[in-house]
Specification:
This protein is of the alpha/beta class. It has helices at residues 29-48, 71-82, 103-112, 127-132, 150-164, 182-193, 222-225, 250-257, 261-266, 287-290, 297-316; strands spanning 60-65, 86-90, 117-122, 138-144, 171-175, 197-201, 217-219, 231-234, 272-274. The strands form two sheets. It has a five-stranded parallel beta sheet. It has a four-stranded parallel beta sheet with strand order 2-1-3-4, sandwiched between helices. The chain is globular, with a radius of gyration of 20 Å. Mean pLDDT is 88; it is low at 5-17.
């Protein structure tokens, strides 16, 4: 079995010698911070110039998305192109998968075409890990079911760090559908490792007891915990992953958990509002709050490009020389 970059390094000074990003659960604080530092470099460089880096010249990045995506798929494609890689999007519809070819065989065929990095989103938890065990290419988890979404958490961490200068000692509220959220899981791992206190808030059916074992506080009354939060990350209700009605109505959910202007007034004056998207205006937050002065939602999108550039660049440095001799 190939090791992921989450495996503990033998030498602390080379935490990025391993070749996959499968999740944040096994990454150390130092490994997470090294990604954020590199992403900060790309964010600053992009603010000054749109000139492409040559870091991935001669590399090929395949996006294998088995679920719908706008921000993540586009962000990975742009990140690869900013680093001068060749990119190719793969869609299961119309592919040989419809003829009975296995997922692993499909990936191996893409690898035979020259893929250096496979960016994978799949509805089944553990799929990126399974793929990493069967291919020589680097594998990046772009979201696997309700398991993890590491680059989303990394861009959330970068957004917080750029706005607050530190993550250590902050109180961060994750609000909404925790039970079905891969974003919540990756954020919990990242935030707690960087020294933040995490409060999970939502109705009991979406934030069941048991999450405390991950070092989080569980709360069911937003108005009680909101004044304590430095950051609130509003998570989407994931109706597509629910198989039963977990609350009486959208209206009732919004009454108790939607971020409104009235609730903003009860929050800390400098609190930061995040939302991974897609956002449902009028359900999880009002348009005024989504577009208000506390919102860093569009900053998250910009930071996502920098994070994915950092991940692709750092992982590719461990896959050997490019096939055409590029950097």
């Amino acid at each position: 079995m190939r090791r992921s970059i989450g495996s503990k390094p033998a030498h602390a000074e080379t935490p990025w010698r391993d070749k996959h990003l499968l999740g944040l659960e096994d990454l150390s604080r130092g490994e997470i911070e090294s990604i954020l530092d590199r992403a900060e470099h790309h964010a600053n460089r992009s603010a000054q110039s749109r000139e492409k880096s040559q870091a991935l010249k001669g590399r090929i990045v395949f996006n294998l998305f088995f679920e719908s995506s706008t921000r993540t798929r586009t962000s990975f494609s742009l990140a690869a192109k900013r680093l001068s890689a060749d990119t190719q999007d793969f869609s299961p519809s119309g592919s040989s998968l419809s003829k009975g070819e296995s997922f692993i065989d499909t990936a191996r065929n893409l690898e035979a075409m020259g893929a250096d990095i496979l960016v994978v989103r799949h509805p089944t938890p553990g799929t990126p890990k399974l793929l990493a065990e069967h291919v020589a290419s680097a594998v990046v988890n772009a979201g696997d079911g309700a398991h993890e979404h590491p680059t989303q958490a990394l861009l959330d961490l970068l957004t917080i760090r750029r706005a607050k200068k530190t993550i250590e000692g902050l109180t961060v509220g994750l609000l909404g559908d925790i039970a079905h959220s891969r974003v919540a899981r990756s954020n919990i791992w990242g935030l707690t490792k960087l020294g933040a206190k995490v409060i999970l808030c939502g109705p009991p059916t979406l934030v069941p007891r048991g999450w405390e074992r991950l070092g989080c506080e569980v709360a069911h009354h937003l108005d009680d915990v909101l004044p304590r939060c430095d950051v609130v990350n509003v998570l989407r209700i994931q109706f597509e992953r629910q198989h039963a009605g977990l609350f009486p109505s959208i209206g009732e959910y919004s009454h108790f958990y939607m971020m409104t202007q009235e609730r903003v007034k009860r929050a800390r004056p400098d609190f930061l509002l995040l939302a991974p998207g897609p956002i449902n205006r009028g359900v999880e937050l009002t348009p005024e709050v989504a577009d208000g002065r506390h919102s860093a939602i569009l900053d998250q999108v910009s930071n996502g490009l920098a994070v994915r550039m950092a991940v692709l660049e750092m992982l590719t440095s461990h896959t050997g020389p490019a096939r055409d001799g590029g950097e």
